[in-house]
Design a protein that fits this description.
SH3 type barrels, 5-stranded antiparallel β-sheet, DNA-binding transcriptional regulator, Arc Repressor Mutant, subunit A, 4 domains, WH-like_DNA-bd_sf, alpha+beta, HTH_11, elongated
Length: 317
């Protein structure tokens, strides 16, 4: 059996790792009796850590809110996971400085052995740019706006905002990160319409909207977001006719990057988008199928330039 001090630290770490534990679960994890668990919980309370309990059979424990901040207890794998995650976040537009600061603070509260490991990860690694598949820079994430949206989702607080300079009033439900962008899944109470809103295109207005009673969402919010973004959430939207049936087109793409519909002559229409016409041209070129660009005009012009460039690149043409 571990010493009392070591066992208290282990107990505190367990309470931090999960919102709710039964006494039997804690006793099994600590290899002690239920009575010892109760005594150790009392010791934690004496030290200033609020531990809430529900008495009776199947009694449960959770770490409550209080003035004293418990020590951050991470095992080796958890510490490495956090350090690697923060290291990668330093390459995310808008989070560079907060991620570096958080990594430095994390090192300060770790025991010496883990501090040395985190320092070695920091010194031995680097993050390359996240956006290597587009000629358009990622929009910087405004952490203040992101936090405000998360609070509104939690509190069921309606929002008044400008979306691409158009006034909107929406009910926020979920934040979804995809393709290095943040999207807010929200419902327009005036029409009952659901849509994903790009966070970098939102400007919040004050005062905000009214509190609302959440409505059930018809499906999976993440799947809905990536599907709708392919249709409406890009800077450039394209409509392409592909000389192949829908099944063949869908077999060559991720279904979340666009919608595919059949035409009367056995071909398909692919509706997709991207950050720029250059990116969209690369994507449709990777289909490996004959296609015909219909819109937008800028994409038509760019594909024409590419066709001439590729033709010049082949000897004898």
């Amino acid at each position: 059996m571990a010493t009392t001090s070591a066992r208290l630290l282990t107990l505190l770490g367990l309470l931090q790792s999960r919102p709710d534990w039964s006494g039997a679960e804690l006793a099994e994890r600590l290899d002690v009796t239920d009575r010892t668990v109760r005594n150790d919980v009392a010791r934690l309370r004496d030290l200033g850590y609020p531990v809430d309990a529900v008495r009776g059979p199947g009694g449960r424990y959770r770490l409550g809110a209080g003035a004293r901040v418990p020590p951050l207890l991470l095992d080796d794998a958890e510490a490495v996971a956090v350090a690697v995650g923060l290291r990668r976040t330093t390459a995310t537009a808008g989070f560079e400085d907060p991620a570096r600061s958080a990594l430095a603070k994390l090192e300060q509260v770790m025991p010496d052995r883990l501090r040395r490991r985190l320092a070695s990860i920091r010194d031995a690694s680097a993050s390359g740019p996240e956006n290597t598949d587009s000629n358009v820079e990622d929009p910087a994430v405004d952490t203040v706006v992101l936090a405000a949206l998360a609070d509104a989702v939690r509190d069921h607080q309606g929002l008044r905002a400008y979306y691409r300079d158009e006034p909107v009033e929406i009910e926020p439900y979920r934040l979804v990160a995809w393709q290095r962008r943040w999207f807010l899944v929200a419902r327009a109470p005036s029409t009952g319409t659901w849509a994903p809103y790009r966070v970098d295109w939102l400007r919040l207005r004050t005062p905000g909207g009214r509190r609302f009673t959440p409505m059930p969402f018809p499906g999976d919010m993440t799947e809905f977001t990536v599907r709708e973004v392919a249709r409406t959430g890009w800077t450039v939207h394209a409509c392409v006719t592909v000389d192949a049936p829908p099944d063949e087109v869908l077999a060559r793409i991720n279904p979340t990057v666009g919608t595919v519909e059949a035409t009367d002559d056995g071909r398909s229409v692919l509706v997709t988008g991207g950050d720029s016409v250059e990116v969209v041209a690369v994507w449709i070129g990777m289909l490996g199928l004959d296609f015909h660009v219909e819109e937008p005009p800028a994409l038509v012009a760019h594909v024409r330039v590419l066709a001439e460039r590729y033709a010049r690149a082949v000897p004898g043409t």
